[in-house]
């Protein structure tokens, strides 16, 4: 099967007609030159105007969206880390307060034990039995 010749004697037409004929010849050339697998990519290229402007705009939009998402993720992460650090410091302060209370209560209990032993000794010496 022979390929049809892509050279035609085109009659003089208006500019729109010339553009249509050239576009048709380009499409015919793509059909004859390209295998079926790559036709899909060519169709996509035609849909974008063949210049890739839409794809470049789409890529820029995706990069911008990715950058904004990345910045928001960093800000949220920073806020969460700050919150965790604040909670750790608050917990540490509370634990320090509780420890100091326990130490003071321990001292009070030891003083009470000493006073109790002194009272028991005094009672034993005075001869009063329980």
Largest sheet: none
Mean pLDDT: 77
Overall strand count = 0
**Beta-strand share of residues:** under 5%
Estimated helix fraction = over 70%
Structural class: mainly alpha
Low-confidence stretches: none
Based on CA inertia axes, which overall geometry fits?
A: rod-shaped
Gyration radius from CA atoms, angstroms: 45 Å
**Number of H- or I-type helical stretches:** 3
Question: Would you list the SSEs in sequence order as H and E?
Answer: HHH
As an assembly, this protein is: single chain
Distance between the termini: 128 Å
Set down the secondary structure blueprint.
Layout: H1 15-33, H2 36-47, H3 53-126
Task: Explain what you see.
By secondary structure, the chain is an all-alpha fold. It has a domain at 58-129. The protein is built from three helices and no strands. It has helices at residues 15-33, 36-47, 53-126. It starts with 14 loop residues before the first helix and ends with a helix. The model has no long low-confidence stretch (mean pLDDT 77).
Describe this structure in a few short sentences.
With about 130 residues, this protein is an all-alpha fold. About 80% of the residues lie in helices and about 0% in strands. It has 3 helices and no strands.
């Amino acid at each position: 099967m022979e390929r049809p010749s892509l050279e035609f004697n085109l009659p003089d037409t208006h500019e729109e007609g010339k553009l249509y004929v050239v576009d048709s010849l380009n499409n015919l050339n793509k059909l004859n030159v390209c295998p079926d697998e790559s036709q899909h990519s060519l169709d996509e290229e035609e849909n974008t105007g063949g210049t890739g402007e839409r794809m470049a705009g789409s890529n820029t939009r995706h990069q911008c969206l990715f950058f904004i998402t990345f910045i928001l993720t960093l800000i949220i992460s920073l806020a969460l880390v700050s919150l965790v650090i604040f909670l750790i410091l608050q917990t540490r302060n509370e634990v320090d307060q509780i420890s100091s209370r326990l130490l003071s209560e321990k001292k009070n209990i030891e003083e009470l034990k000493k006073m109790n032993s002194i009272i028991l000794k005094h009672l034993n010496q005075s001869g009063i039995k329980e």
